[in-house]
Amino acid sequence: MRVSDVLSSKGSGSVYTIRPEATMAELLDALAEYNVGALVVSHDGTSMVGIVSERDVVRKVRDFDHPSSITVEQIMTSDVQVCSPEDSFGSLMAIMTEHRVRHVPVLDGGSLVGVLSIGDAVKHRMDQLEFERDQLNNYVSRG
User: What is the CATH number of the domain that holds 72?
Assistant: First the structure.
């Protein structure tokens, strides 16, 4: 099982991005509008300079005296854990577990092709387990 399989089963190929100079209000609006927990920080929508998550907002904004003046660039994570479509599903899960991240951008040749969340990974694994269970039930009931 590959990361590309998880991306394709996700259904939506949308990758939501935000500019580094965006304001905190723009960030909060985008997170709410897209109903996501993280946005890739990008100048052009295809390259990546960082990622900003709800976790970044909660943990970093409190260090500023005037939260309304903060830009995404000031709170984003720039050392981003990434994967490629050809990586194994197991390696994706290992990245999320070892680095304690909930969102992993997927890069193909340096271009952003998707973002996978821990929710996407859990759903994909649950779908796999249900399929295997159904196959075993069919095998046993035929025998």
Answer: 3.10.580.10
Domain that holds residue 102: 3-142
**Residue-wise pLDDT tens digits, 32-85:** 999 999 999 999 988 899 999 999 999 999 888 888 889 999 999 999 999 999
Question: What's the rounded Cα separation, in Å, for the pair 120 and 110?
Answer: 22
Side-chain half-sphere CA neighbours of 59 within 13 A: 8
HSE value, Cβ hemisphere, 13 Å, CA-based, for 1? 15
Number of domains making up the chain = 1
pTM: 0.85
Nearest partner of 49 among 112, 7, 91, judged by Cα: 112
